[in-house]
Design goal:
Layout: H1 2-17, E1 37-43, H2 52-65, E2 69-75, H3 81-91, E3 97-100, H4 102-105, H5 125-128, H6 132-137, E4 148-154, E5 156-160, H7 161-166, H8 182-195, E6 201-206, H9 211-221, H10 239-250, E7 254-261, H11 262-270, E8 276-280, H12 282-290, E9 299-302, E10 315-322, H13 328-342, H14 345-355, E11 358-359, H15 371-376, H16 393-408, H17 413-425
Helix pairs in contact: 9-10, 16-17
Length: about 425
């Protein structure tokens, strides 16, 4: 027995000396690296945010900085985008992030309880500098933030400067201030018709894209409004708006087309078929003209005509919302992308310039080297309050288009606006 024990001891010592340790308890298997959190971003065509190439730098930069997150992007359009979102709601396949405006993020999806609370994103120094009016448009009545804003703009209209000049119609507007009166607008249309431009402008009524243009046109012409100042009710049926609609319907040289969509109006304008475009902003000029080699006329962006010459322009705000998936890891990853874009001045500037709009906080000089965009900054002081957060906004947008189509088809204007009021009030 002693001899066996001694042999065993020698063998163990020999193995140890040769660098071979005796077998011990089995080691636990190494853990696999954590799988990246997968999130999806859907973007409406906010400037060039609908262009995969334009945003590739921000997306790839975020991926390098956050290897534990995998981001994929899908680009929506305004013709089918809303239906795409509703399909995703029904099927439970919503994305994590979406880039759009408060009228959808807050007044629609937020009011339906689909959006995550972004309140923690508003606790940064950058968020504290956001304009008060923009902040108010991103927050529900109960204080919940459904939107983190990225950029803003004022919608305006545009004229074919060369055609106006040839027709002697430039005299009816103020080129320096980019303003004109309602009477000047009527005189310009008459001058264009006398020159041979049978259709000076078109009121588009099909689809929902560009509704801000028709709203601003109608409410400015005779001093009307779309909502009350408190954004509690719609005022489309006011005498001022009825008078404006009748003016547009009866004015020879203005095509009140129930089937024409905003995109179609822009196309006709860029082809020279119309002397004016009511659906316009700085971003559209970049996308549709600067990059259009066939454009053979100068464009002058204008405010909408008013009786007093003091316009009130519809504001536009765009930002990110996060759909509430119930998955905290995905929600946190989505917020990480917003922090990445908005938390650094250089990246934030890039995000704003991709949209071809303006920052939502004071950042002077962002377009100092861009004469076209600098020119559009003159419209910012004309920005009206953000009425798109009035309750029942989704129904109001749909009712607005139906009302315009009725007017374009020849229905009595008073009857058409009363139908609008009944629809938005649930009557």
């Amino acid at each position: 027995m002693k001899r066996a024990f001694a042999l065993t001891l020698v063998l163990l010592l020999t193995l140890t000396a040769c660098g071979v340790a005796p077998a011990g308890p089995p080691e636990p298997p190494a853990e696999d690296p954590a799988e990246p959190v997968e999130i999806k971003l859907w973007t409406y065509p906010v400037g060039e945010w609908g262009n995969p190439t334009a945003i590739s730098g921000l997306v790839s930069g975020f991926q390098r900085a956050n290897p534990d997150i995998r981001l994929t992007v899908e680009h929506l359009d305004y013709d089918t985008g809303d239906a795409r979102v509703e399909e995703a709601v029904a099927s439970g396949t919503l994305p994590d992030l979406v880039l759009e405006s408060p009228e959808r993020l807050l007044s629609d999806w937020g009011e339906r309880g689909l959006m995550a609370d972004l309140g923690d994103l508003w606790e940064t120094e950058q968020a504290g500098a956001v304009y008060d009016a923009v902040r108010a448009a991103c927050r529900r009545g109960d204080g919940t933030y459904c939107v983190y804003p990225i950029c803003m703009s004022t919608h305006c209209m545009a004229i074919n400067y060369d055609l106006f000049q040839a027709a002697g119609a430039l005299q009816y507007l103020d080129e320096e201030k980019r303003t004109w009166s309602t009477e000047g607008f009527i005189q310009a249309v008459e001058a264009l018709r006398a020159y041979g431009q049978e259709q000076a402008a078109a009121v588009y009524c099909g689809g929902q894209g560009g509704d801000q243009g028709t709203r601003a046109l109608v409410t400015n012409l005779c001093g009307g409004s779309f909502t009350d100042p408190e954004h509690t009710r719609y005022t489309v049926d006011s005498p001022e708006n009825i008078r404006a609609l009748e003016l547009l319907r009866d004015l020879e040289g203005v095509d009140f087309d129930p089937a024409l969509q905003g995109a179609g109006e822009i196309e006709r304008f860029c082809k020279g078929e119309l002397a004016m475009a009511f659906c316009w902003n700085g971003s559209l000029e970049v996308v549709h003209t600067v990059k259009n080699p066939d454009l053979d006329f100068r464009i002058l962006a204008m405010t909408f005509p008013t009786e007093t010459g003091e316009p009130r322009l519809q504001s536009g705000i765009w930002g990110f919302g996060v759909f509430d998936s119930g998955d905290e890891a995905r929600i946190a990853a989505a917020k990480a992308f917003i922090r990445y874009v908005a938390g650094d001045d250089a990246r934030y500037t890039q995000a704003v310039q991709i949209a071809n709009f303006w920052p939502v906080r004071d950042m002077p000089g962002i377009y100092d080297n861009d004469p076209l965009m600098s020119a559009y900054s003159a419209f910012i002081p004309y920005a009206d309050d953000y009425c798109q957060v009035t309750p029942n906004w989704v129904a109001a947008r749909g009712a607005w288009w139906k009302m315009l189509q009725r007017v374009g088809a020849g229905e009595d204007v008073s009857a058409a606006v009363q139908a609008f009021s009944r629809e938005v009030s649930g009557g």
